[in-house]
Design brief:
The complex is a heterodimer of chains A (288) and B (119). Chain A has 288 residues and is of the alpha+beta class. Helix content of chain A is 47%, strand content 18%. Chain A has eleven helices and ten strands. In chain A, strands 1, 2, 4, 5, 6, 7, 9 and 10 form an eight-stranded antiparallel sheet that branches. Chain A has a two-stranded antiparallel ribbon with strand order 3-8. In chain A, a hairpin with a 3-residue loop joins strand 4 and strand 5. In chain A, helix 2 crosses helix 7, helix 9 packs across helix 11 and helix 10 packs across helix 11. The longest helix of chain A has 25 residues. A five-stranded parallel sheet of chain B has the order 2-1-3-4-5, sandwiched between helices. In chain B, strand 4, helix 4 and strand 5 form a beta-alpha-beta unit. The relative contact order of chain B is 0.19. The longest helix of chain B has 13 residues. Chain B has a single domain, classed as Rossmann fold. Chain B is of the alpha/beta class and 119 residues long. The chains are: A alpha+beta (288), B alpha/beta (119).
Chain lengths: 288, 119
């Protein structure tokens, strides 16, 4: 019940052993050439070009290929040829498992089908963001995964409103926040009304009633929910080729007037209505 | 009955895992550590057979604790229970550091018990 990569799916199901997956990953690392290595093997650049470009990366937040392109060492056509070669020769984990003798080709096809079924609920629907938001596809995926987790993990029916940009984070009963960093940075915040918090708690604790639970436990369940969502965002981002890291969650108790969005930042608000009149909001706060 | 130590900064996850483990009939939960440093201390005092540990915790995180635990205690078997397992690099790192398996959050009781029983 989470975003996974195929190797993890196989180990978790007990289809292949820990040792087998590690051998397959070692084989992948041996066979799958990095961008620079591929470019050298195609005769387009030399190791000295890579070393120079790596030095330039200290001062420029750019991919190796983009630096080589900027410096005129590679042409756009060559860059695309290298990327295509990398894709065509990439050894996938399933193929590597066949090569190390842990799966047959027939088993691989069968388990790939099962894996696709398992992951189908996490395939993205389109969510529209206001124009001009950097890393838009990542934040669309984040909102989409949040909605999917509300359905899958919390088992709640809900309706959403379109995303809008806000200048104040409206007050609510509580907010749980996690910082996302790496290739894209934002603070992920889920604000919940008192009733919505109890709905989250019931689902996370698998309890019919949470009336006797302490405020600390109730808050903790919202933090755990966003921890699960953000962990899955990291996994999905990694499938999109982006490195995203997370810190442990924290709670925010907003003042009644709400929290103004700090200067130099923007905030995206995704209103989520649950039940009759309970409300959640997904808020993504990021530098402009 | 095998002894299991739960390591997670979340009270609610700790409680869920404790219940799953104690209701299983095969395992008993000997404690709930809130971060990696507490896990190392409790591994020493409680001497568990198995540790179920989160990755993303304040203070000492799960992978750092795993690195220490596998050096300090060659017997204990560590299973990571994490929402980060789906990120391939974290999954691989955990296995390379000696974790026996990685369970994804949110988890189901059956998955947790099947994984523990296979150890």
């Amino acid at each position: 019940m989470a975003v996974k990569f195929f190797g993890q799916f196989l180990v978790e199901k007990g289809i292949v052993s820990r040792e087998a997956i590690l051998s397959a990953i070692d084989l992948q690392e041996l066979k799958n050439l990095k961008f620079g290595e591929t470019a050298v093997s195609m005769g387009y650049i030399t190791q000295a070009d890579i070393n120079r470009a790596h030095k330039a990366q200290f001062s420029k937040d750019m991919k190796l290929g983009d630096i080589l392109l900027e410096e005129g060492i590679l042409s756009e056509k060559q860059l695309q040829e290298i990327i295509t070669r990398q894709k065509e020769t990439h050894l996938y984990i399933g193929e590597a498992l066949v090569l190390v003798g842990s799966l047959t080709s027939e088993m691989l096809q069968q388990h790939l089908k099962e894996f696709k079924l398992d992951q189908a609920p996490y395939l993205s629907d389109r969510i529209e963001l206001p124009a001009g938001v950097a890393n838009g596809n990542l934040w669309e995926m984040t909102a989409d995964l949040t909605y999917k987790m509300i359905t899958r993990v919390l088992g709640l029916q809900f309706r959403t409103e379109p995303c809008r940009m806000v200048t104040t984070l409206e007050s609510n009963f509580m907010m749980a926040a996690m910082d996302l960093s790496g290739d894209a940075e934002a603070r992920y915040i889920l604000s919940v009304s008192a009733g919505a918090q109890k709905m989250v708690a019931k689902a996370i604790l698998h309890e019919e009633s949470v009336e006797h639970e302490s405020a600390e436990i109730l808050e903790d369940t919202v933090m755990e929910f966003i921890n699960v969502v953000c962990g899955n965002v990291v996994a999905k981002a990694s499938q999109m080729g982006k490195v995203v890291n997370i810190n442990p969650p924290a709670t925010i108790r907003p003042p009644a007037a709400g929290l103004p969005v700090p200067q130099g930042h923007i905030a995206l608000c995704f209103p989520i209505h649950v039940g009759e009149d309970e409300k959640m909001e997904l808020l993504l706060l990021m530098r402009q | 009955m095998k002894k299991v130590l739960v390591v997670d900064d979340s009270l609610s996850v700790g409680r869920q895992l404790e219940k799953i483990i104690n209701d299983s009939g095969d395992f008993t939960c000997v404690g709930h550590a809130k971060n990696g440093a507490e896990a190392i201390k409790m591994n020493h005092t409680e001497n568990p057979d198995i540790i179920c540990m989160d990755m993303n915790m304040p203070g000492m995180d799960g992978l750092t604790a795993l690195r220490s635990l596998t050096v300090l205690d060659k017997e204990v078997q560590v299973v990571m229970v994490t929402s980060l397992g789906g990120a391939g690099d974290k999954f691989t790192e955990a296995l390379r550091l000696g974790a026996k398996n990685v369970i994804s959050k949110p988890f189901e009781a059956d998955t947790v018990l099947q994984t523990l029983r296979k150890l």
